[in-house]
Specification:
5 strands, alpha+beta
Length: 114
């Protein structure tokens, strides 16, 4: 969603489990160089807002764009569990989500190095 318009303020969210997400087929065009551009229609799942619960295993601040990438497994996950990656982009549209994450990590005495 980071390069697209944000959903309306009253958008409905859909609760989904990590295990369900792991069964989904990849979005259209994934794996095809040059397909995932603003000119191509988004996959239907990319037009929804999902809420999930899981174990956070790793956070990476991407060097090329400073996006936060969060690796999340199912709540009962182990270090070897399959994971999904959730991205929180930079920019004013996502400032509150990024600040909420940093605030919670600070409460847990975890520091992000950018």
């Amino acid at each position: 969603m980071k390069h697209c318009s944000l959903p309306p303020q009253n958008v409905q969210t859909v609760a989904v489990s990590i295990n369900t997400m792991l069964t989904w087929t990849p979005a259209r065009g994934v794996g095809t160089p040059g397909f995932r551009t603003l000119e191509n229609e988004l996959d239907a799942k990319e037009l929804k807002v999902f809420v999930l619960t899981g174990n956070l295993w790793r956070i990476n601040v991407e060097a090329n764009d400073s996006d936060f990438h969060l690796e999340i497994s199912a709540p009962d996950g182990t270090p070897r569990s399959d994971r999904v990656i959730v991205e929180i982009p930079q920019g004013t549209r996502y400032r509150s989500a990024r600040e909420a994450l940093v605030q919670r990590l600070t409460q847990l005495d975890i520091t992000l190095h950018r």
